[in-house]
Amino acid sequence: MRTIVKICGLSTEETLDAAIAAGADMVGLNFYPKSPRFVTPERAAVLAARARGKLAVVALTVDVPLPALGDLVAAVDPDWLQLHGTEDEDTIRAARRTFGRPVMRAVGVSATGDLAAAARFAAVADRVLLDAKPPKGPGALPGGNGIAFDWDLLAGLEAGPYMLSGGLSVGNVAAALAAAPVIGVDVSSGVERAPGVKDPDLIHAFVSAVRAVGPIAARSQLESIAP
Ligand SMILES: O=C(O)c1ccccc1NCC(=O)[C@H](O)[C@H](O)COP(=O)(O)O
């Protein structure tokens, strides 16, 4: 099975088409109002319709209450939900049940102890996104900060539906995949020329860099995972 590639925080037709042409598997549409990647539900609906059947569209939200999430799902009809805040297991279960879509839960990692939280969420979510923790201080976003964490912390990660994110780029994604036993990768800042401005050439280069690593089975620590 090939490594899953998600390009997060798209907002234009041009960059969506680049992700599709490059062979990405998922794109993220960002509904966090303070993000430079924020898209309105109306704009997202246009992009999601364009992507339909070509790759999976992920609606990324941060601590949005279920009724408002329902409005978003109705407007955009995403294939996946990505919960990138402090949503607990009950909320994940409720979102899966209510909206009938798979849920990805992001988990910040800065120490091996965080892998316990990741495993807890992996038991109830369809996928867990292992991301860098946001930096402290004003202006930091819950994600999309372009910061990598120490991938060696993942050496003891049990096989599971884990994807890796945080500071990935064309230059480091092969090393990240060599270190981290994950089924996929997610990138945002690393394929941008400025915050919120995705670059079609960088999207192509990033997907090519992942494909050059080869399928998951070529990474020995993942031979037993069937996502
Ligand atoms: O990207 C954002 O602006 C963002 C804002 C609020 C919550 C999550 C956000 N991004 C989540 C993602 O899925 C990113 O792709 C992931 O954090 C990695 O980002 P980066 O380090 O910039 O590649």
UniProtKB/TrEMBL annotation:
Pathway: Amino-acid biosynthesis; L-tryptophan biosynthesis; L-tryptophan from chorismate: step 3/5. InterPro entries: Aldolase_TIM, PRAI_dom, RibuloseP-bd_barrel, TrpF_fam. Residues 5-208 form the N-(5'phosphoribosyl) anthranilate isomerase (PRAI) domain. The keyword Amino-acid biosynthesis applies. It holds the Pfam family PRAI. Keywords: Amino-acid biosynthesis, Aromatic amino acid biosynthesis, Isomerase, Tryptophan biosynthesis. Its EC number is 5.3.1.24. It catalyses: N-(5-phospho-beta-D-ribosyl)anthranilate = 1-(2-carboxyphenylamino)-1-deoxy-D-ribulose 5-phosphate. It is an enzyme of class 5 (isomerase). It comes from the Bacteria. One of its GO terms (molecular function) is phosphoribosylanthranilate isomerase activity. One of its GO terms (biological process) is L-tryptophan biosynthetic process. The keyword NAD does not apply. HAMAP family: PRAI. Belongs to the TrpF family. This is N-(5'-phosphoribosyl)anthranilate isomerase. The gene is trpF.
